[in-house]
Amino acid sequence: MASAELITAVVVDDHPAIVAGVQAWCTLADPPIEVLATGPTPAAAWTDPGARADVVVLDLHLGQTAQPGYGDLTRLVDAGRQVIVYTMRDDAETALSCVDIGAFAYLTKAEGQTHLVAAIRAAANNLPYTPPALAGAIGADTRSSRPRLAPREEDVLIEWFTCESKEMVAQKLGLSARTVNTYIDRVRIKYANVGRAAPTKAALVARAIQDGLVALEDL
Amino acid sequence: MRRGDGAESARPDRAAARAGDAVAGPDGAAARPGRRRGTAAVYLRGLRLATVLITFAGLFGLALPVIVAHAEVYRSLTLELVAFGILLAVAVFCAVRADPGRWRWPLLVLVFGAALLALTGVPPELIVSRAEWSFMLLGWFGVLLLLDKGIGAVLAFLLVHAVINVGQLVLVGQADRAALVGLLIAGVTVFGYQLAVAFAAGMLHRIARVAAETARAEARRRTAAVITRELQRDHEERYAALSRTALPLLVDLATGRADPGEERVRRLAAVEAARMRRLFAEGDDVDDPLLHELAACIDSAQRGGVSVQLAVRGPRPPLDLAVRRALTEPALAALVAAASTARVTVVGSANAVTVSVVADAPEPVPVAQADGVVVTNLVNADRVWVEAKWRAQN
C-alpha cells in the first residue's frame, strides 16, 4: 500500500459533526490525508471511490443499533481492508473483540484528536499503533486466550493507558521513549498473531518481522 | 503506617463482628420461642397420646366386653360389631395421624354414623343401660378429632351426641323421666372428663401462641436496637472523620486566622468540600463503592470547572473503606487542584488496584501512605501524575 504517496481514507460514521471533524484533521495533517468518501453506512467503503481508500475509519455503532457492528468490521477485514474502529464506547471488551476480529486499531472518540491521524498513517503502512484506551484493554486483559506478555510489557501498557504520555511512562519506569514504543508495538504484534486469522493481522506481523521489531521465534 | 489509621483499619473485623451480633440477636431470640413452642407442643402431644390410650382402653376394656356379654340381648349383634369396627378404625387412624387434616369431617360423620348404628342395634328399653356402650365412648372421638379446634368444637360435638341420644330415646318411645335422668347422670360423668381434656388442650394452644408472639416482638426489638446502635456509630465515625480536618479549617475561618482571599485557604476549603462529598458517598449502598466515591471527587472538580475524563480497566477485588479512602485521597487532591483538565484511570487486577490522575495541577503535597497503598508522584512540564496503588497483602 501507499507509503510515500498520498494516503487515502474513507470515513463511515452516521454523525455529520464527526465526519466533518475527521475530514478537517485529515486535511490539516502534514502531509495531508485524502478522504475519498464519507457515508453513514459501510456502503461508502464498498463502493467507488471509497472502495479504493487505503484505510477505513469505522464507527462501531451505526444507526440506532445497540449492538456493535462486528459483522461490518469482519466483512471489511476479510476483504483485506485496514480498518480503524472509531467509537464512543470506551470498554475493554469491545476493544479486545475488535482487535481479535482484525481491526487495525481501536480508538475512542475522546482520543481522536491526538491519535486518529497518526493511526491512519500507521495503518496505511502496516505499522502497529496502540492508543491508550486499547493499551489499557490489552494490559488488563484477563482472558485465557490472551498471548503471553512479559511483566514489563504489561507495566508499560498500563502506564501508557494511565498517563497518555510515552515520555512520562519512560520517565516513571526508567526506560527510553524508544524502548517504551518497542514494548507497546511488540505486544500489539503478539495480539495480531493470536486468535482469528485475518489478512490485516498477517500483514501487521509480516511488516514487524521485516522491520526487526520481533523475531519469528518470539511469537 | 498503622498509627492514626488503626481505628479505620480495624473496622472491617469489627464490622463483621457487629454484623454477627446483629444476626445472632434475632436468631438467639428465635431459638427461645422455638423452645417455648416446643414445650407446649410436647404437652399437647402427651395429651393427645393419653386421649388415644383412653380411647383404646375404652374400646377394648369397656365396649368389647359389654358387646360380648350382651351378644344375646341386642336386636342385631352385627350392627354393634360394625359400629365397633368403624370406631376402632377411626381410633387407629387418629393414633397414626396426629393431624386428621382434610379427613376430619368425613371421620366425624363416620363416628356419628357408628353411634347411630350402635344405638339402633340396642333394644329400646336398654338404651339407658350398660348394654348401650357407645354413649360413654363417643366423646373421646370428639376430643381426638377436634383437639386442635378448641373447647367450643368439642362442646358442640358432645351436644350433637347428646341430642342424637335423646332423640333416639324419644323416637323409640322411651323418653320417660327415669331414662332422661339416667342419661343426664351418665352424660355429666363422662363429658366432664372429655371437656377437661379439651380445656387443657385449649390452654396449651394459647400459651404456645402467646409465647411465640412475645418472642417475635422481642426479636424485633433487639434487631431495632442493633440497627440504631450501628447508625449511631456510623454517624459518630463520620463526624470524627470530618472533625480531623474540616472543623479546624472552619474554626480558623470563623476566628479570622485563615483568610478566604488566600489561594492556599481556598484550595484547602475545596479539598474539604470534596472530602465531604466523598464522605457522603461512602454511606451509599452501591455495587462499586470505589467508583462511586471517586465519582464524588470528580464531581467536586467538575463543579470547579475542570474537564475530567475517567477510564476504567480490569476486574477489581472488593476493598475496605480505609483502603478506598487511601486510594482516592491523592486523586481527590490532584483533581481539586487541577487548572483545566484531568484524566482519571482505575486499573484493577486480582490482587492490585491503581487509581491514577494526570492533571495540569501544581506539584502535590506528599501524603502519608496507609493500608498497603503506595502513592507515587511524577511531575512533567505542566502536568502532574499522581498514582495510588494498593496491593493485596498475603
TrEMBL record, chain A:
Sites of 4-aspartylphosphate modification: D59
Domain of life, source organism: Bacteria
SMART domains membership: HTH_LUXR, REC
Annotated Response regulatory domain residues: 8-124
One GO-annotated biological process of the protein: phosphorelay signal transduction system
Record flagged with keyword Membrane: no
PROSITE patterns: RESPONSE_REGULATORY (PS50110)
A single GO molecular function term of this UniProt record: DNA binding
InterPro entries according to UniProt: CheY-like_superfamily (IPR011006), Sig_transdc_resp-reg_C-effctor (IPR016032), Sig_transdc_resp-reg_receiver (IPR001789), Tscrpt_reg_LuxR_C (IPR000792), WalR-like (IPR039420), WH-like_DNA-bd_sf (IPR036388)
Keywords: DNA-binding, Phosphoprotein, Transcription, Transcription regulation
Protein name in the entry: DNA-binding NarL/FixJ family response regulator
UniProtKB/TrEMBL annotation, chain B:
Segments for region (Disordered): 1-34
Entry keyword set: Membrane, Transmembrane, Transmembrane helix
Organism, as annotated: Crossiella cryophila
Name this polypeptide is given: Signal transduction histidine kinase
Statement: the UniProt record of this protein carries the keyword Transmembrane helix: yes
Coiled-coil region(s): none
Biased composition (Basic and acidic residues): 1-16
Biased composition (Low complexity): 17-32
Presence of the UniProt keyword Transmembrane in the record: yes
Top-level lineage group: Bacteria
Record-annotated membrane-spanning stretches: 46-71, 77-96, 103-121, 154-172, 178-201
